[in-house]
Structures are given as structure tokens and as C-alpha cells.
Amino acid sequence: MKKSALIPLAVFAVLVVFLGVGLGLKPREVPSPFIGKPVPQFVLPELMKDGKTISPADLKGQVWMLNVFASWCFACRAEHEVLSAFINAEKIPVVGLNYKDEAEDAKNWLAALGNPYQHIAFDYKGDVGIDYGVYGVPETFVIDKKGIIRHKQIGPVFDETVVDTLLPLVLKLREEKI
Amino acid sequence: MRRFMLSLLCCIAFAGTATVFAEDGAERLTFSSVESEENYNTLVNELRCLVCQNQTIGGSDAGLAKDLRAKVYEMVESGKSRDDVVDYMVARYGDFVLYRPSFQLKTILLWLGPIIFLFLALWLVVRWVRSQAITKKAEPSLSDAQRQQVREMLDQNKG
Questions:
Q1: Name one GO biological process term (chain A) (predicted).
Q2: Which ipTM did the prediction report?
Q3: Which residues lie closer than 8 Å to B116 by C-beta, 6 or more apart?
Q4: What's the predicted TM-score (pTM) here?
Q5: Where does A36-175 sit in CATH, by number?
Q6: What is the rounded CA–CA span in Å between residue B5 and residue B9?
Q7: Which one of B47, B51, B92 makes the best mutation probe of the A interface by having the most chain A beta carbons within 10 Å?
Q8: How many CB pairs under 8 A join A and B?
């Protein structure tokens, strides 16, 4: 057989490799420019505590998470049970960022499903969401003791996410010194 | 061929309706200067909507696209330059937000890839054409005996 007869096969093999790799990529998960950067600051009213405000500075010195959620977001409902179990088991302080939601709707949602959050920042206009580069609610940020974002989870938290990523990361970050 | 032309026409027609819808979704805005209006228009057509990834924020009806358009408007109107707005968006959403990616080490293959492939293709074509020419020269198309045969056949026809 002539060597040149193998060229189409070789081209096909290269194509298969490229397409195969392409199948495994997740174009929805855009790498976040925030990893390794200080958490963006904000001061927002607390949803559940009238007259109080919450800021990331209040949580400095501990490993904490910021979870972007809204009552209109179906995937948030899906992750709520998993996330709550994780938060309660590990006693992690979590700020819920209530993103572009009506206060009344959010309160009803939490009353029905339970409230695992230590604080809830009420981001009615979604400005803070923009500062955090939020584009697919729910999103979860893991922040270390120094206030540096170490991980961003785009989309709902599943059991596997907790076991494979969030839990090991939180345990590791807790060992780190300030 | 006719079928091909027909489907092409359909594509063009549908593409047309799509842009009309997108423009209908946009807000009516008033600008303080022609310059800021131009800035706004280029920017919203250069920034990707991350919710619907193959649309710009100017052409998308998604909630996030609306918010980002408002942000661009606000920044442009407050006298911010094009670069300021681009930096602001990249800091929050990453390089992916740019429809026209910046020229960096990371994106070098993206920019130079097509040129490299073009030269590679040209080189292959040149090589192939040359090898064709050489083989033609090396073996004459007809042997002397065949030439003689042809000549005889032609003569026979004349006669």
C-alpha cells in the first residue's frame, strides 16, 4: 500500500482526537479571573436582619463561602439540600448573595426550604453580582482566611462537588495560617 | 444548484429577521455626545454575553446582557474610555468576554494559527506542483516506438 493512501486516515485520526477533546470541554464554565484575587468588597443590607449591613470584611480571618442564589433560580432549589447539609456538617460561615430577587420572594423561599446562611446580602439591583462576574446563578466562591478567592463553582453544587472539591479545599484552607 | 441557492436565500432571510428582533430588544438611549454614542455602539457589539455565549451583549435579550448594557452606558456617559470599559469587563468576566481576543502569549495560536496554516498549505501545494513537474520531465509521455505508431495512424487517416 502506498504511503499517501494513509494520509486521509491520519487526518481523520487527528480530527477524532480534536473532536474527542472538544466533547469533554465545558464551554459554559468560563475560567474565573478572580481565583487568587482578593474578594471584591461591598456593603449590602442584610435580608433577614433589618437595618444591618454585611460586608466581606466582617468575615476576615476565617474560611468562608459566598453562594449566589435567588428564588427565581431553579438550579438553586436543586443544590439547596446538598449545600445546606454541607454547611451544617462543616459549620462553614456562608454569605448568601440574594441576586436580583424580591425580598418577599426570597424570604418565602428560605422559609419553605430552610436557611443555611449565616448572613444574606440583599443585592436587589445586581451590581454586586456584576462585581463578582456572576453570569450563571447559582455560583459558589470559596474564600480563604486572608480574604482571597480560592475557588469558584459555576452552577449547582452536587454531592460529588462537595466530596471531590469543596470539602477537601475547605479542610486544606483551614490548615493555612493567616 | 437551485436547491442550494434556495437554502442560502432562506439563511439570509432568517439572519435578517434575527438581527431585527435583537434591535427591538435594545433600549432607547440618549447620549450626551456623538462620541459616547459611537463608543457605546462599538462596545456592546464587542462584548460577549456570557449567558448566551454566541451573542454579544448588544444582541442579547438576557437579563445579564441588559445589566451590562446599562453598565456600559453608565461608564461611557461618565466619560470613561473604550479601554476602561474593556478592562472593567475583563477583570470581572475574564478574556472570554471579548469577541476580539487580545494579543497575548495565551492567544498567540488563535491569532497566528490561520497564517501558519496558510503558509503550510502553500508550501505543500508548491512541493506537490514541483514534484509533478519533475516526474513529467523524467519520463517522456510517449516512447519512440509509440510516436512512430501514432505518426503511422495519422498518415493512414490522411490517405
A1: cytochrome complex assembly
A2: 0.77
A3: none
A4: 0.73
A5: 3.40.30.10
A6: 6
A7: B92
A8: 33
